[in-house]
Amino acid sequence: MVTSSPSTATRKRPTLGIAGFFGHGNYGDELFLSVFEEYFGDDYNLKVLPDLPAKPYFSRPIAEMVKEVDGILLGGGDLVRPWGTDERYFHKEYLTKPVFALGLGVPIRVGSPNEAEKPHIAKRYAAFFNHPNMKFVGVRDEDSRRWMENHVAPATAPLVAAPDIVCALTLPEVTRDPEAKILGIVTRQRPDRDVPDDYTQLENLAKELQSRGWTIRHLILGTGIVGWRDIVNAQDLDVPGKEIVYSQDLDELSRAIGECTTLASMKFHGSVVATMYGVPSIVMIPTSKNRSFMRRIGREDLLSKFDAKDHLERFEPRPADIATEDVAMLRKQATDLLLQVQSAVKEAIN
Questions:
Q1: Which partner from 168, 181, 193, 237 sits 20 to 30 angstroms from 130, CA to CA?
Q2: What pTM did the predictor assign?
Q3: Within a 10 A sphere around the Cβ of 87, how many other Cβ atoms?
Q4: Euclidean distance between CA atoms 82 and 91, whole angstroms
Q5: Burial of 76 (0-12, 13-18, 19+ CB in 10 A)
Q6: How far apart are CA 290 and CA 283, in angstroms?
Q7: Whole-angstrom Cα distance, residue 295 to residue 287?
Q8: Exposure of 321 by Cβ count < 10 A (0-12 exposed, 13-18 middle, 19+ buried)?
Q9: For residue range 269-287, what is the model confidence (pLDDT) as tens digits?
Q10: Phi, psi for residue 44 in degrees, rounded to 5
């Protein structure tokens, strides 16, 4: 006798646990959740594993929580830190289930003694990424891929470099007024700084562009606790008459970026989302991930620093829009990565 299989409607959907820096309201990290929902939400239940904002990070015993999922999505962001590991992302219990890493970055902090590479930390990562249950390793740029190859050398799973996975996200549509000139500015509180950041050069740029008829839009790219810190920090940018965009709605924040003529951003994902709208984003903190991202599309001209003295020179004339073919390239490569992960997940847990 042949037994029919359960219908799609009655079959229990598998559950994917998600490990990353979520729940704090950081714009880019919350967009990662949107990516996971778009590419995995139709076929899987999704559950964030580190569900508390502070230690112990997990509301229940981690083994109990992992037992309830069928696989784990790990990423994205600056999670592979050469100076230390974090149990929210690299807990040994995760390896009792198939693990799929994607969108990972390796931040390289040159000249920072507290964030220097440590050989014993690299060995910990090597043990984690070479476990038989590691099924896929996706990193967001070539610099991260090289570090992983040289220090971790994943052998049980493919190592794939692709643009940041937010490049694959379907963003809300915007209507940009061709007559409007809007400079969007994104600042951030940096709690690791002993002295507050000096925004004098940004203020000079904003006031000069105001005199030329530009609207200055100060975007608070954060919700929750991160948004609260950034809105307090925004008071340090003294530009009378500026617009302030502060919302708990990620789509509203993204649309506010897409409406800009040019962005000047201290946040990586401000630049990523602007780029995907075709809006040139001047990088205000030239970290390794920002340099890699702009190098990928040949726009090193957008790399700067918030306290640089040559901001106005970039508007003589203003930075060119991002080429449509570069936007298409980023979207395709990021989407291809996610489709590869989809296939790996189905093969491993379905």
A1: 168
A2: 0.94
A3: 16
A4: 16
A5: buried
A6: 7
A7: 12
A8: middle
A9: 999 999 999 999 999 999 9
A10: -140, 150
